[in-house]
């Protein structure tokens, strides 16, 4: 077997050393491919001097920066396992992850004791400022190219089920995730990607960054998402942004920012949305503004999967689709009895390919449950693929509930609710009911200044949803709890609902 993937930064440093590679927007500093390659080699030296070798975990809790990218690249070269930590998590949540991953080194932008407590005792520590200084003073050191099948990245899921799991990605997984995204999003050496998505998420760390750097393009790293700043940067001809990746909530924030101007934003080559599908109304609104928008399908365990073609005409014809799969991806839509369904029928999405994870860290039982012996990953997503290969997601398998013997997919109901004037966000869950077994409860976030009555909502659902699908109860929330990927944390929302902390419309 080929030793693919190769070190793509070293490759481009040899063939186009002076070409821009990365720019840190917070500091204003830029790196060519030659400089990025040297920094990664210097970081290898720094890590080795602190006893880091193959298989050791290096955990980092810090906001986006090129130095953080350099650390990730150095871990890859050295054979260490890079563990990016979600800085939005509470200390107790971070402590659980650190205990599970048991890193040999913690890298941070604020003292570890402040965010992980006693879980960091006995672990070596290094601040981001110290890392930058030691890289600057270090002598470049080469590392033997590690086996691309070995674990390289440990990404902890956002915990939509209430428990974070460490997803193991090899260098081969990461390479083909980047390759898949490059194919679907037309990433080339001339691409410039603005990355506001946190680098603790597969979208920020692997999907976008890998695709662009593998192709020899330019990464613009932002240390936070601010919709006003993002609009400015997207419209700045001196930056030349061609690609922007985000979750639907970020895309919505761009449009509501005070400086949104579709004439300026239309300079953007494409807007790629992942984490959850963007609703049809929003897709069409971006297209009407001259921006090519494309829903994509991916998750931590598979990286980049399907993606819409960057053709506005095709997107208009398939506005609810998350696209087609690349040729390296094998796909099945499976019924409850394990057989493949016919084209257009709904079932659970199973995937197999070089981008698919090896399994979960320290979770053999859960790995066996989700990954088959012959390499298929059971995504838990319910979807349908039409005769032309376009995927439409219906819902998460575990979110489906049964009312009066009929399957109800909350995502289908949520799409109808967010189309109601005055509704900004919606989350639907099934709750026990003596008569029907389960019925739907809709948690709504209203748009600023909007008021809606129970009658308004029922009238909107009537004729758009079958009676068994329409929610039987509506509650109001100021916001919906979300994980790092933008998905609603329904287990958290359910707890809030059970505690009676939401206003019920009567």
Explain what this protein looks like in three dimensions.
By secondary structure, this protein is an alpha/beta fold. The chain folds into two domains: 8-391, Rossmann fold (3-Layer(aba) Sandwich); 400-504, 2-Layer Sandwich (GMP Synthetase, Chain A, domain 3). Helix content is 31%, strand content 25%. An eight-stranded mixed β-sheet has the order 2-1-10-9-11-12-13-14. Helix 6 (171-184) packs across helix 7. The longest helix is centred in the N-terminal third of the chain and has 17 residues, at 33-49. The model has no long low-confidence stretch (mean pLDDT 90).
Helix/strand layout:
Layout: H1 8-15, E1 20-24, E2 30-32, H2 33-49, E3 57-61, H3 66-78, E4 81-84, H4 91-101, E5 105-108, E6 124-127, H5 128-137, E7 151-156, E8 166-170, H6 171-184, E9 192-195, H7 202-215, E10 218-221, H8 227-234, E11 243-246, H9 248-256, H10 262-265, E12 270-273, H11 280-288, E13 293-299, E14 303-307, H12 312-317, E15 330-334, E16 347-352, E17 359-360, H13 364-370, E18 377-385, E19 391-396, E20 401-403, E21 406-408, H14 410-418, E22 423-433, E23 437-446, H15 454-461, E24 473-476, H16 490-498, E25 503-504
Parallel strand pairs: 1-10, 3-4, 3-5, 5-6, 9-10, 9-11, 11-12, 12-13, 23-24
Antiparallel strand pairs: 1-2, 7-8, 8-17, 13-14, 15-16, 16-18, 18-19, 20-21, 22-23, 24-25
Helix pairs in contact: 1-2, 2-3, 2-5, 6-7, 8-9
């Amino acid at each position: 077997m080929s030793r693919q993937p190769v070190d793509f930064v070293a490759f481009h440093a040899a063939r186009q050393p002076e070409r821009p590679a990365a720019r840190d927007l917070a500091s204003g500093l830029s790196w060519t491919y030659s400089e990025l390659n040297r920094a990664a080699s210097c970081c290898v030296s720094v890590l080795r001097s602190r006893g880091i070798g193959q298989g050791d975990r290096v955990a980092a809790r810090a906001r986006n920066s090129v130095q953080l990218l350099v650390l990730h690249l150095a871990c890859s070269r050295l054979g260490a396992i890079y563990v990016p930590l979600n800085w939005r998590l509470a200390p107790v949540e971070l402590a659980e992850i650190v205990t599970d991953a048991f890193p040999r080194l913690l890298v941070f932008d604020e003292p570890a004791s402040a965010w992980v407590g006693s879980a960091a005792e006995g672990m070596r520590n290094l601040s981001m400022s110290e890392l930058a200084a030691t890289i600057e003073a270090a002598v470049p050191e080469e590392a033997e190219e590690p086996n691309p099948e070995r674990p390289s990245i440990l990404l902890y899921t956002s915990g939509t089920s209430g428990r974070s799991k460490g997803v193991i990605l090899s260098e081969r997984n990461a390479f083909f995730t980047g390759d898949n995204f490059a194919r679907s999003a037309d990433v080339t050496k001339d691409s410039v990607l603005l990355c506001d998505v946190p680098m603790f998420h597969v979208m920020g760390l692997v999907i976008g960054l890998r695709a662009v750097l593998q192709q020899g393009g330019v990464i613009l790293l932002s240390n936070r998402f601010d919709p006003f700043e993002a609009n400015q940067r997207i419209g700045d001809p001196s930056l030349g942004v061609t690609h922007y990746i985000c979750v639907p909530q970020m895309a919505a924030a761009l449009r509501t920012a005070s400086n949104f101007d579709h004439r300026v934003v239309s300079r953007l080559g494409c807007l790629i949305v992942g984490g959850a599908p963007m609703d049809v109304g929003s897709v069409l609104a971006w297209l009407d503004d001259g921006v090519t928008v494309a829903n994509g399908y991916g998750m931590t365990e598979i990286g980049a999967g399907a993606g819409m073609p960057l053709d506005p005409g095709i997107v208009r014809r398939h506005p609810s689709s998350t696209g087609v799969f690349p040729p390296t991806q094998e796909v099945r839509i499976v019924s409850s009895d394990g057989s493949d369904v016919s084209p257009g029928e709904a079932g659970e999405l199973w995937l197999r390919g070089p981008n698919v994870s090896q399994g979960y860290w320290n979770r053999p039982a859960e790995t066996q449950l989700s990954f088959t012996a012959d390499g298929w990953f059971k995504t838990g997503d319910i979807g349908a693929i039409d005769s032309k290969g376009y995927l439409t997601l219906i819902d998460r398998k575990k979110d489906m509930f049964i009312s009066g013997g009929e399957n109800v997919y909350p995502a289908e109901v949520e799409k109808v609710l967010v189309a109601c004037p005055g509704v900004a966000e919606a989350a639907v869950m099934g709750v026990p009911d003596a008569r029907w077994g389960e019925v739907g409860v809709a948690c709504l976030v209203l748009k600023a200044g909007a008021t809606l009555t129970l009658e308004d909502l029922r009238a909107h659902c009537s004729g758009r949803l079958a009676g068994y699908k329409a929610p039987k109860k509506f509650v109001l929330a100021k916001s919906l709890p979300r994980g790092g990927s933008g998905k609603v944390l329904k287990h958290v929302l359910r707890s809030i609902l059970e505690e009676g902390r939401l206003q019920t419309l009567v």
